[in-house]
Write a structure and sequence with these properties.
The chain has four helices and seven strands. With 180 residues, it is an alpha+beta fold. Strands 3-2-1-5-4 form a five-stranded antiparallel beta sheet, with no helix packed on it. A two-stranded antiparallel sheet has the order 6-7. About 21% of the residues have low confidence. Helices cover 57% and strands 16% of the residues.
Length: 180
């Protein structure tokens, strides 16, 4: 808590140094509405003592728009939609082919199935919010939504890199040591 003194006649705030308030004491009272009066000194004194808390809270973030004009925003929406639908279709085909065919139940195809699942997860993390922002011309994301997106993006990227590393090692073992 920071202690602040208000001079009612001058309309100035004193806390070690003085700065002026343009519209006088009433406007400073509106600007300092979160201040709490601790006590009022002796009668007739023009100085009031207040305590102000130094706190802030973030409820949402403002995102930078991809385009300024509405036509470009709709173009971005169509591009996001086309690319995400193509990725969803390709990953869905990989998942259904590996899951349905008994010939593809080998370690490499198991890793490929898991890679397609993590790719679906990473696509569904950020692209829908970007499409929503482009279509409805909004620019905000909640703090919780941003934290969830950051967590999920890092989770899916880490799992994709891990799966790719395991797949590379599996290929190395199958090529360099085929009968061991």
């Amino acid at each position: 808590m920071k202690e602040v003194l208000l001079d009612r006649d001058k309309g100035a705030v004193l806390s070690g140094r003085e700065w002026s308030v343009r519209e006088g004491f009433d406007s400073s009272m509106r600007n300092l509405s979160s201040a709490v009066i601790v006590f009022s000194p002796a009668k007739g004194s023009n100085v009031w003592r207040k305590q102000m808390s130094n706190s802030s809270s973030i409820s949402h973030f403002l995102l930078l728009p991809l385009a300024d004009t509405r036509q470009l925003q709709l173009l971005h929406f169509c591009l996001f939609l086309g690319i995400s639908l193509a990725a969803l279709l390709a990953n869905g085909l990989i998942i259904s082919a590996v899951a349905c065919s008994h010939l593809l139940h080998m370690p490499m195809f198991f890793f490929l199935l898991n890679l397609a699942l993590t790719d679906l997860g990473s696509i569904c993390t950020t692209v829908p919010k970007a499409m929503h922002n482009s279509l409805w011309d909004t620019r905000h994301i909640s703090y919780e939504g941003c934290a969830a997106q950051v967590f999920l993006v890092f989770f899916f990227l880490t799992s994709e890199f891990s799966l790719l590393t395991i797949m590379c090692y599996d290929c190395y073992v199958s090529y360099c040591k085929p009968l061991h």
